[in-house]
Every structure is written in C-alpha cells, then in structure tokens.
Amino acid sequence: MTGRLQLIRAALAAGVLIVASLGAVALAGSATAAQTPDGPKTRIVGGDIAHTADTPWAIQLSNTGSPDPTGEWCGATLVAANKIVTAAHCSQEAASTYTAIQGRDVLSDTSTGKESKISSIWVDPQYGQAAGHDVAVMTLTTPFDGVPTLALETDKAADAAGAASVVYGWGETEGTGPANTFQKVDVPVLGDAYCEQAYASEGYTADGEICAGYEEGGKDSCQGDSGGPLVLNGRLFGVVSWGVGCADAGNPGVYAEVATYASALQAQIDG
C-alpha cells in the first residue's frame, strides 16, 4: 500500500515525521506505527492568547503517557455534556489513560477547570484503512453539565476557499507564544485544489479533509493541537489532523472534515 508521510499534529516531539501506511494507525505508541514514548501533541503557531471562558466547548485531552508535566496530549471539542470529538490518531491508548479538561487556559494551573475521565472511545472504523477518517468520539465518565457545546457542521460545501475558520489549542508555538497556554489563530480555507497539489505525495483527500492556512506560512496549528477544533460559523468545521512541519510556506494544516463524518459522529454522540 502507498505510504503516507505526515507530521501527525499530536506527536510530542516537534518536527518528527511519522511514516505510516494507509493500512496502519499513524499514531506514536500504537502497535502498527513507529514506536515512541512521546505520544501525541500539537500547538498554535503565530496565534493569539484565547480564553476558554469565550469558547467553553474547547477541551484539553491529557494522557498518563505524555512526557509533558501537564499531561498534554491532544485537543478535543465538547459536543454533548458527556461526549467529545477528537482525532482518531489521538485515541489509540486505553480509555483509562485519558483525562478531559474543560475551562483551563494555562495547563499548569490545576486550580481552574473541570476534569473527567473517559469511559469509552469510538474510533472511525475506516481510520487506517483509507485516507482521512481521522475522527473519534470519547464518552466522559463525569459529564460537563451546564457547559455550552458546539454543533457539528453538516454542509460539505462549507469548505469553500476563503472561508474564515479559526483553530484553537494548547500545543507547540515554535516560540510565537507561551507554551501550554490556550491560543487561537485564523486559518482561512485554501481549498482542496491547493492541498491536492501541495500534498500530492502525502495522500491528501478532498473527500474528508480540509486544507486551511496561508500559502506563505507563518500561522498554523502544530504539535499538541491534534484533535482540537477548527471552527467556522459557530460550528465544529474540522478536527486538527496532520501536516508537514508547522506554519511552513506551502505546507498548510490538514483537518478532518466534520461534515463528511457528521452522520457517523452524531450516531455516537446520541448513543
């Protein structure tokens, strides 16, 4: 099968390229991918400080296998009181190893925010079998009752070039901001044609992925932001998935297109 060279935006070691076949799970620490103790991670580059009070549905996903003192692993989005959407490549560890954190701007400040363990995980069954499908749903042991949720985007036409989307996360900043601190950055949709050309050898698929960022680079999601929300018009538009480097010219971020998987995701959310 064709190999897929990707910088998984959950790999804790910034700049590591993970090679995985389309039939393998592209996650450090899984039995079918390159083995590394670092696990997933990604951060915003070239963004601005954000506040979870303004975006309470933004979730930080920690894991006991993370080498980061805060446990930082991936991002996620609260879509129901007891359900979060994240990336499939963030979801390959045992459910008991994860903790969802809501309302914590600075991850080292454990006096703030709510926490919940994860009771179960659903991963898109086609992830690793076909390009795309980098989505998962986790069920919270302790629901975040009363916290606003984010609705799923269901219109596949929403990914028109120029659409003004915003990505959020706690991940790598490459020196453009404080580490382990909630941030956001505007990343306009570049369109499928651009990423099909830019990532011709990496396996970008217009059927299920979104290409967003800047042709000249400078602003992007990065390691540690994996699984986090790409938001457009008040809906969960995309899930941080992969890219080559972070904020490099000609290598924009790639996001799982929520509208493509909305029916499958909603079935899990309602279940």
TrEMBL record:
<comment type="similarity">
    <text>Belongs to the peptidase S1 family.</text>
</comment>
<dbReference type="GO" id="GO:0004252">
    <property type="term" value="F:serine-type endopeptidase activity"/>
</dbReference>
<dbReference type="Pfam" id="PF00089">
    <property type="entry name" value="Trypsin"/>
</dbReference>
<keyword id="KW-0732">Signal</keyword>
<dbReference type="InterPro" id="IPR001254">
    <property type="entry name" value="Trypsin_dom"/>
</dbReference>
<keyword id="KW-1015">Disulfide bond</keyword>
<feature type="signal peptide">
    <location>
        <begin position="1"/>
        <end position="33"/>
    </location>
</feature>
<keyword id="KW-0378">Hydrolase</keyword>
<dbReference type="InterPro" id="IPR043504">
    <property type="entry name" value="Peptidase_S1_PA_chymotrypsin"/>
</dbReference>
<dbReference type="InterPro" id="IPR009003">
    <property type="entry name" value="Peptidase_S1_PA"/>
</dbReference>
<dbReference type="InterPro" id="IPR050430">
    <property type="entry name" value="Peptidase_S1"/>
</dbReference>
<keyword id="KW-0720">Serine protease</keyword>
<protein>
    <submittedName>
        <fullName>Trypsin</fullName>
    </submittedName>
</protein>
<feature type="domain" description="Peptidase S1">
    <location>
        <begin position="44"/>
        <end position="270"/>
    </location>
</feature>
<dbReference type="InterPro" id="IPR001314">
    <property type="entry name" value="Peptidase_S1A"/>
</dbReference>
<dbReference type="InterPro" id="IPR033116">
    <property type="entry name" value="TRYPSIN_SER"/>
</dbReference>
<dbReference type="GO" id="GO:0006508">
    <property type="term" value="P:proteolysis"/>
</dbReference>
<dbReference type="InterPro" id="IPR018114">
    <property type="entry name" value="TRYPSIN_HIS"/>
</dbReference>
<keyword id="KW-0645">Protease</keyword>
